[in-house]
Amino acid sequence: MYTASGKSEKSDLLTLHMPMVKRLAHHMMGRLPPSVEEDDLVQAGMIGLLDAISRYDEAQSAQFEAYAIQRIRGSMIDELRQSDWLPRSARQSMRKIEQAIGALQHQLGRQPSETEIAAAMKIPLAEYQSMLGDARGHQLLYFEDFGESDEDDSFLDKQSANEASMPLPQLLDANLRACIIAGIENLPEREQLLMSLYYEQELNLREISEVFGVSESRICQLHGQAIARLRTKLKEDAWIVGA
After folding, report:
1. Three-state SS at 171
2. Angle 16-18-20 from CA coordinates, rounded to 5°
3. Does the pTM exceed 0.70?
4. Phi and psi at residue 193, in whole multiples of 5°?
5. CATH classification of 8-83, choosing from 1.10.1740.10, 2.60.40.150, 2.40.50.140, 3.40.50.1980?
6. Percentage of the chain modeled with pLDDT above 90
7. Which of 66, 105, 128, 180 is the most buried (most CB within 10 A)?
């Protein structure tokens, strides 16, 4: 890993961290629609890794892997900026789903089933599940959830590499974390397990589908539904100010 001068070989760093690029791309795919090609993300991530290797100063305090992850993700986001990764129609569909879930929760006093949500929306169950699949990139929080924003701006355009613009400090707020935890605990058991495997164990959707014994597309639907339930909870607790 190191030359006689004590400097790590760039080729060794590249070989060592290539699997990390693929892992980050696979995990990011769970938040993106089927139209996004994983190979495109991997290619963009490799560019980010090469950039990290060329820019990294071993004298700095940050470990290379942590530094490289930032560069790799930033490169992938730059790639996604060039395409309309979540059409407005998909976002609108998810808002309708959230409204239906919220109304049913108040009416039933519990989490509604898929069949009940579809019936409330007056659409067939298959169409409801298709809407969940189309909105595969649905996020728990958007920048506009924290205040006024231009609806024409895409989520990724707002997710710049400038850390000062990131909502991370708000995400780490103890009250918000407690609200999210309470929301997850209120999810149906199967969706609780899915969220745990995806966000805590960092399994990708294909791996989770093997655990559940269902298709990857079905896991995408359940993940989207869980996110819609959580967003409904955050709206009720006034963490999300947008409709």
Report:
1. helix
2. 95
3. no
4. -65, -45
5. 1.10.1740.10
6. 37
7. 128
